[in-house]
Amino acid sequence: MIEMHDIWKTYPDGTPALQGINIVIDRNEFVYVVGPSGAGKSTFMKLIYREEVPTKGQLSVNGFNIGKLKQRKIPYVRRNIGVVFQDFRLLPKLTVYENVAFAMEVVESPRRQIRRRTMEVLELVGLKHKAGSLPAQLSGGEQQRVAIARAIVNSPSVIVADEPTGNLDPETSWGIMKLLEEINFRGTTIVMATHNKEIVNTLRKRVIAIERGTIVRDQQRGDYGYEA
Q: What pLDDT does 227 receive?
């Protein structure tokens, strides 16, 4: 599913972000990525969905060698990777329905399939009744649910969630986690970067801890391990 072999990432200004990362994430796993701010978590996540490429080493996602991927093949790889951001990144002038459907339109899905699948995922995230609303008319939790619907609408095998509860209150955060657990239960691999100690310590999953660009802990049913 996701394999990193001796992955190094150094930015053009010489800043080292990752150093000698070796990790395998299997199909259907739910993995937390934790560590101090500036440890390399975001770079780790960006490599998976090919926003960044490794400086050295081999990274494979769904059988594709990300570092050597030709430009024309990037969209095909990203179709199978859903991304959820802390700041939602919804298109403000599009309705809830249009924001989700857009992800299918860009891969040229048939119109009838777009309609059926979009309404299906909006029902899954509990927002079918908000299909005609604009993002500004939604709460933060509802906006994040739309972002999750958009991430899963093309039935990806992997979801990369970068601080998906970072801007949400505790009650709303638990609702988002319940939704992510349901998506994982349905067979999607989840890789989630988080600073939320309570969530990690309550919903025991695999924990990968990164410090100063290296993996210092890889623990099944792990805890957060840092002061929140």
A: 73
Using CA atoms, how far residue 59 sits from 31, 73, 121, 181, 225, in Å, is: 17, 15, 30, 26, 27
> What are 200's two structure tokens?
């990690």
Q: How many CB atoms lie within 10 A of CB 171?
A: 8
- Give the number of other CB atoms < 10 A from CB of residue 88: 20
User: 119-134 burial, b if ≥16 CB within 10 A, otherwise e?
Assistant: eebbebbebbebbeeb
DSSP for 98-131, written as a single string? HHHHHHHHTTT--HHHHHHHHHHHHHHTT-GGGT
Mean pLDDT across the chain, nearest whole number? 94
Q: Is the dihedral of CA 59, 78, 38, 189 positive or negative?
A: negative
Domains of the chain: 2-219 (3.40.50.300)
